[in-house]
Amino acid sequence: MKRVATVSLAGCFGCHMSLLDIDERILELVKLVEFDRSPVNDLKKFKMRCDIGLVEGGCCNEENVHTLREFRKNCDVLVGVGQCAVMGGLPVMRNAIMHSSDPLRECLETAYFNSPYVYNPTNDIPNDPALPLILDKVYTCPEVVKMDYLIPGCPPSGDVLWQTLTALLNGKPSDLPGEIIRFD
Amino acid sequence: MSKTVVFKIDGVEIRGTSGQTIMEAADKAGIYIPRLCDVEGLDPQGSCRVCTVKVNGRTAASCTQPIADGIEVENETMEIRNFRRDLVRMLFHEGNHLCPCCEASGRCELQALAYRLGILQPDKYPYLQPVRPVDASHPDIMLDTNRCIRCGRCIRASRQLDHKNVFGYIGRGINKQVGVDGKDLAHTDVHIDDKAVALGTCPVGCIIQKRRGFFDAIGQRKFDLHPIGTKEKDS
Fold first, then answer.
1. Contact call for A178 and B96, based on CB within 8 A
2. Predicted-complex ipTM score
């Protein structure tokens, strides 16, 4: 039985939701794989080495980078799933804020000071030591570690994910989805 | 006096009339050559190079190269396909093409070409993530140059069809951009009914008509129904 780990970094869990779109094929899937660390079973740490790691989302804080490196260390095949992992997706919009030489500051000030519906009487940007340090910009997964495969889509459809998983479980990367891939 | 010209595309004999370009003759014969900067009704510009073919072993842009008797054109070879794929890839990596949040997704020719050419592992080049202006000053039209591929279709449409000169190129090389004839879009004489800002003119989501975003459901959009190159007329 193959072991699969999944994680959502700077993503929206949409790709995990899309995994449920494989519908009743999920019964077949649980016969073939055992889930290690994953939001599906709420395991926070790796129990043992995994065959396949599915990564949703890019890296926007240091905890994301740490988790992604952990996945690279513990997974034989690492797959970036969805536009956020592939090219940054929506979070990457903060890298290129118009007319700003300091996009991160502008992003935080808009979120915590300048937005019309902000209630922030202390005028602070959250800075608790328990919060992971935010990175200067959003990095895609291939910028941080070596990714074996990337599956674009926002999210990749259930069929795309099913085809990806069956191709990798059968050890036939040439069967990875092609024509059904979409970028949105 | 036009006379018939006989030549071959990928070994198939095509008849065209003298004065036609390879692209025009191929379109007439129902053979699709991928393109971005060329669109029916405007003069060809030959700048995107996606329509590059090999004519008797030498590369040429098929939208500008005239046909001649007996020439042998290579269109769908592995070499040309890889060349086009790299060109489209570079366009994706050079701008900020965020398909999930783009109004043009599904009717975007750049995206549709990427599907056609099979760009599935988009990590060959680094993403440049440039910082480019968005001009939302006009009440009906928006210009998001993050998505511009400098095809010049809006520039030619404005000049040749609207006789207005609203759009034009600014800068050179990697800094080349599409700019407007005025302080911003609101200070030009552009109108929502102009051909330059019509839906089919901008191949990507750079020129956006306001209040029309995401008006087609996913699955019902232009290239969802007919992938690019499957109908004779794509634009």
1. no
2. 0.88
Q: How far is CA A110 from CA A58, A97, A100, B134, B177, in A?
A: 22, 11, 12, 18, 28
Q: Is there a domain that residue B228 lies in? A: no
**Local confidence band at B172 (pLDDT 50, 70, 90 cut-offs):** very high
B104 in the same domain as B38: no
Q: Does B185 touch chain A (CB under 8 A)?
A: no
B102 and B192: one domain?
A: yes
Which residues on B lie below 8 Å from A100 (Cβ)? Answer: 131
Residue B44 lies in a domain: yes
Distance CA B149, CA B172 (A): 14
Chain A and chain B share a number of CB contacts under 8 A equal to 73
Range list of β-strands (E), chain B: 4-9, 12-17, 52-55, 58-61, 72-74, 134-135, 141-144, 167-170, 177-180, 207-209
The count of structural domains within chain A is 1
Among chain A residues, CA nearest to B116: A179
pLDDT in tens, B62-100: 999 999 999 999 999 999 999 999 999 999 989 899 998
Tell me: do B61 and B126 sit in the same domain. no
Residue B125 sits in which domain range?
85-211
Q: CATH code at A170?
A: 3.40.50.700
Strand (E) or helix (H) holding B115: helix B109-117
Q: What is the pLDDT of residue B234?
A: 45
> For B47-66, how does the pLDDT look when each residue is reduced to its tens digit (9 = 90+)?
999 999 999 999 999 999 99
- Per-residue confidence at B210, pLDDT binned at 50, 70, 90? very high
Q: What is the mean pLDDT of residues A25-36?
A: 93
Cβ–Cβ gap A95/B132 under 8 Å: no
What is the total count of domains within chain B?
Answer: 2
Residues 41-100 on B with a CB inside 8 Å of A are 96, 98-100
B105 and A147 within 8 Å at the Cβ level: the answer is: no
Q: Do A184 and B102 touch (CB under 8 A)?
A: yes
Q: Does the distance separating the beta carbons of A183 and B99 come in below 8 Å?
A: yes
